[in-house]
Task: inverse folding
């Protein structure tokens, strides 16, 4: 037989495009429009109802960027439409840009009750399934003129309302009453499902030809000039092939509705409030017609926004949860970045998220749901288990540039050995449309074939695109059991995970360590001010909770600021969202983030100051929020320097410290064109270029810097990623660099006895940098306090320390521990880690000797093996600043202040202690001396947080962990009397009684183990 497949397929595609789809709406009549352009920011619907509207015609331009226009739509269903399916169909000027990245709207009835969102792929508002005829239509459309910002990563001013301009960016196309011809609509879906499947089947398979001939017969039965009148006959020709059941061995797909809504990205936070409301309205409306719908929705913050701003929609969400149509998932406050949040912050993401879902919706979530974050810390498995979470889901690893993940369903093992059952959907999207190509890809791509038989497919338009559609639900119905296709079953993620674990859990492979994303490596650096704000607020929250707890246990009259701390924590957690903290949002988002962090820090400073004041009167006292005792130089209230010895989590009088005379201090010498900085531990040489030519560890009798090298060498690279400007640091950036060696001035600005410092000023391009290289009495760290006026374009700035250390691997601090990474590039997996994330420290070591690099706000680093004349060294570089142009064309421009430090002779324990010291400066205030609120007698056990319990009971919660990677036995004591002690889970729910003896609370920790204790003070 002659092969006419291409002819039939071409005939089908044209018929569908030109005749069948346009016939879905058989009759239309336009609605009468009027408009009110809201001034400024969005307003509540009540204000819009009372506004003055003016006539408006379709075809008219509207919408300044980021503005809101309210359209009143009025009309009447024609009497002749009695018994027909009537809808309002709206096109406010949708463009070719994807759903969620352009105009959107929420439709209300005349009384202001929200009905449903409209989006490019979801434009209808129901009027009547069977009209009576004559029904009045009176609707309000809140239309958001959100601009499309991202076009080939070209710079644009549209990313901030302050720079976007006043030009109108949309032209209102239509708003009609229309009759939906259900036969034509269902025929369209039949054809789409079958043709999508057909194109995925091999041409040699009979099933492909069965479908082709059925589609041909359907076209023969269809009169293209009378599609509505012949659609039923055309459908009848497809019934048999649609009814043919799936093979018993077909891959099983658990499909769950989904709408990944970035809490901010190419739109500001305030717009996400509306995006969530529109999508939530859509989903709850859809559930009325499709009782099988299950919608998986994460991010407690977005629920909280809808509860606050849209109470009608919130009630519908609660009903959908109760009816089983809605599955809260994720267990977190937002879908945060999963590399940079601190350990306690990541714990609070989970506790705040799970508590919201339990208290507001009565749901105990069982999974971490992070489909889009840019890599995943190896601390997650333990945190998940401690919160009662059983499963983990991600999708982003399908974006890897170099190496394909070998598993889709596996056990993920964290740094402490805890494992969590993990799924990485082989469909390679979290915005599926239940398209035949997607279903076929999921089956082909699934690496566990032969051992496991099922995978998950999240379907729906994200980012404000409206979520699942009725068309997707119809396709799921048709592919529930369809020969040649995977079996599609709509169900909750928990049902999928339970079935997958039962089927495969005993045999599933194990992935140990971090889930490193081989892409978006620049997100460790971009928008440095946002990252600095995150680090500072995390530590300020830690400090505030500590001293507020101290005040509460000492002073019965002190009122612990539960509500304020809760609000501030949620603000910080929100800004850890995976497009805010990573720096990949528009200018508006980061401008607001900088202001927000400043407000949070000011409020936390006042909370801490108030708590310290409540401790009672006293002289100037140094307060230490670190869990380790400190011996260091502090600046007193009069600006003078004082050397103090301060207990961990306690304080020490400056007057007592001032009466103590140190035998050794810090001195400076000028010799041979160099400035030498000396104390009892280190001898540091700074040359005429302001670079470190020597860092000599006196006790170890060794030079820290590689022979012939210079430390704190600033290096400037061109930075032109192939695609994602704010996100990516592509390896080719290393091919070219400029060493910034020229200095305008190098001068000694402090010469002891408690601190010595050299100030170095450099100018390059349009930028200027001032650094103070400081060495304090008794200190083992060389600090570089840096002020930059950064005015570069598409450059990346690194600070290099070539170290005479032969290191096979680096150790980088992560949440509740550290992770090792190879310094070589032996494998593709090693080579891909050419930029890595570290928190407060990164350490390289050979046997018996190590060096750490500390920082107070930097996350991006690289570590390379560097040969020199006498052997092999290791170069550690911090990635300080970038200057990409998209989506924020002014990224990072302006002033920055940060500090990093070199710590010679550092053990892992030294790095932990000194990293905390750098990030938790001693606080000086007038107050009485406090003994350590909590003490642990083994330095391998690090106290992460001290706070009052979230339930308001007044119990003290202490979270601690083993920080060195070994076993640790310890005893915990307190400076307040304790009547009872329990070990709890992450949410402070009791697990078991704590073991105590006469010395205190007895602890035995495994490597990197996290323990949460609940202590009941004697009252």
Result:
């Amino acid at each position: 037989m002659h092969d006419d497949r291409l002819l039939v397929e071409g005939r089908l595609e044209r018929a569908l495009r030109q005749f069948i789809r346009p016939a879905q709406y058989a009759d239309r009549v336009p609605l009468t429009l009027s408009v009110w352009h809201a001034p400024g920011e969005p307003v509540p619907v009540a204000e819009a109802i009372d506004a003055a509207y003016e006539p408006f015609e379709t075809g008219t331009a509207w919408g300044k960027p980021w503005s809101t226009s309210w359209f009143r739509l009025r009309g009447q269903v024609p009497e002749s439409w009695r018994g027909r399916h009537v809808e309002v169909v709206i096109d406010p000027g949708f463009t070719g840009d994807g759903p969620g990245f352009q105009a959107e709207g929420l439709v209300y009835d005349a009384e202001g009750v929200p009905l449903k969102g409209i989006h490019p792929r979801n434009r209808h508002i129901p009027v009547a399934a069977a009209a009576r005829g004559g029904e009045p239509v009176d609707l309000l459309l809140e239309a958001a003129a959100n601009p499309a910002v991202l076009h080939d990563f070209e710079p644009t001013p549209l990313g901030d309302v302050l720079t976007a301009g006043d030009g109108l960016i949309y032209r209102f196309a239509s708003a009609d009453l229309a009759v939906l011809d259900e036969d034509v609509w269902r025929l369209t879906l039949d054809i789409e499902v079958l043709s999508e499947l057909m194109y995925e089947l091999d041409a040699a398979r009979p099933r492909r030809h069965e479908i082709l001939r059925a589609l041909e017969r359907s076209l023969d039965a269809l009169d293209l000039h009378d599609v509505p009148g012949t659609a039923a006959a055309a459908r009848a020709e497809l019934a048999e092939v649609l009814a043919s059941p799936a093979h018993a061995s077909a891959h099983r797909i658990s499909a769950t509705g989904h709408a990944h809504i970035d809490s901010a990205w190419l739109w500001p936070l305030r717009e996400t409030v509306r995006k969530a409301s529109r999508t939530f309205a859509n989903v709850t409306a859809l559930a009325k017609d499709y009782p099988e719908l299950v919608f998986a929705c994460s991010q407690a913050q977005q629920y909280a926004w809808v509860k606050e701003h849209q109470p009608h929609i919130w009630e519908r969400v609660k009903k959908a949860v109760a009816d089983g149509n809605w599955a809260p998932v994720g267990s977190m406050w937002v879908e945060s970045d999963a590399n940079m949040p601190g350990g306690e912050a990541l714990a609070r993401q989970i506790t705040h998220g799970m508590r919201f879902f339990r208290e507001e919706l009565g749901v105990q979530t069982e999974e971490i749901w992070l489909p889009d974050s840019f890599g995943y810390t190896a601390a997650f498995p333990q945190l998940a288990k401690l919160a009662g979470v059983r499963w983990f889901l991600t999708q982003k690893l399908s974006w890897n540039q170099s190496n394909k993940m070998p598993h889709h369903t596996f056990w993920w093992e964290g740094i402490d050995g805890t494992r969590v059952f993990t799924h990485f959907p082989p469909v390679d999207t979290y915005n599926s449309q239940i398209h035949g190509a997607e279903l076929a890809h999921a089956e082909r791509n699934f690496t566990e074939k032969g051992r496991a038989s099922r995978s998950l497919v999240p379907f729906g338009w994200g980012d404000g695109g409206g979520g699942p559609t009725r068309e997707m639900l119809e396709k799921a119905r048709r592919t529930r059991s369809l020969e040649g296709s995977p079996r599609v079953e709509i169900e909750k993620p928990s049902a999928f995970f339970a079935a997958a674990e039962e089927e495969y859990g005993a045999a599933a492979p194990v992935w140990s360590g971090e889930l490193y994303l081989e892409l978006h490596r620049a997100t460790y650096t971009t928008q440095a001010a946002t990252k600095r704000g995150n680090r500072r607020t995390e530590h300020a929250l830690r400090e505030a909770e500590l001293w507020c707890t101290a005040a509460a246990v000492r002073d019965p009259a002190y009122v612990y600021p539960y509500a304020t701390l809760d609000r501030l924590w949620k603000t910080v957690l929100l800004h850890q969202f995976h497009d805010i903290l990573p720096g990949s949002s528009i200018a508006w988002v980061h401008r607001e983030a900088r202001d927000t962090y400043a407000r949070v820090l000011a409020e936390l400073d006042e909370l801490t100051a108030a708590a310290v004041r409540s401790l009672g009167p006293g002289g100037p006292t140094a307060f230490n929020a670190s869990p380790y005792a400190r011996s260091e130089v502090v600046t007193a209230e009069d600006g003078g320097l004082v050397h103090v010895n301060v207990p961990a989590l306690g304080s020490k009088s400056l007057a007592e410290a001032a009466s103590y005379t140190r035998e050794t201090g810090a001195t400076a010498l000028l010799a041979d064109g160099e400035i030498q900085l000396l104390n009892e531990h280190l001898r540091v040489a700074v040359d005429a270029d302001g670079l470190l030519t020597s860092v000599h560890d006196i006790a170890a009798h060794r030079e820290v810097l590689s022979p012939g090298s210079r430390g704190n060498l600033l290096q400037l690279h061109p930075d032109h990623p192939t695609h994602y400007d704010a996100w990516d640091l592509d390896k080719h950036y290393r091919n070219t660099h400029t060493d910034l060696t020229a200095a305008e001035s190098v001068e000694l600005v402090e010469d002891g006895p408690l601190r010595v410092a050299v100030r170095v000023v450099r100018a390059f391009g349009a930028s200027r940098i001032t650094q103070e290289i400081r060495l304090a009495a008794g200190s083992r760290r060389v600090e570089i306090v840096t002020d930059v006026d950064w005015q570069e374009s598409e450059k990346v700035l690194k600070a290099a320390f070539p170290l005479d250390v032969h290191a096979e691997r680096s150790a980088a601090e992560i949440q509740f521990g550290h992770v090792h990474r190879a310094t070589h590039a032996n494998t593709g997996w090693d080579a891909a880690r050419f930029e890595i994330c570290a928190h407060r420290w990164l350490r390289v070591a050979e046997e018996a000797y190590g060096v750490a690099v500390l920082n107070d706000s930097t996350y991006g680093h690289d570590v390379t093996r560097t040969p020199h004349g006498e052997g092999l060294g290791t170069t550690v570089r911090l990635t300080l600043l970038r200057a990409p142009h998209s989506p924020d064309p002014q990224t990072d421009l302006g002033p920055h202040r940060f500090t990093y430090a070199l710590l010679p002779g550092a053990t892992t324990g030294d790095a932990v202690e000194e990293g905390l010291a750098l990030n938790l400066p001693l606080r000086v205030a007038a107050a009485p001396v406090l003994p350590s609120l909590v003490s642990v007698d083994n330095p391998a056990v690090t106290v992460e947080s001290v706070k009052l319990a979230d339930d308001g009971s007044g119990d003290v919660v202490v979270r601690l962990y083993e920080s060195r990677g070994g076993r640790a036995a310890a005893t915990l004591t307190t400076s307040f009397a304790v009547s009872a002690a329990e070990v709890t889970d992450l949410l402070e729910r009791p697990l078991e009684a704590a073991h105590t003896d006469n010395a205190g609370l007895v602890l035995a920790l495994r490597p990197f183990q996290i323990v949460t204790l609940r202590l009941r003070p004697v009252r």
Remarks:
- The chain is about 25% helix and 30% strand.
- The first helix runs from residue 5 to 20.
- The two ends are 93 Å apart (CA to CA).
- The first strand starts at residue 25 and ends at 30.
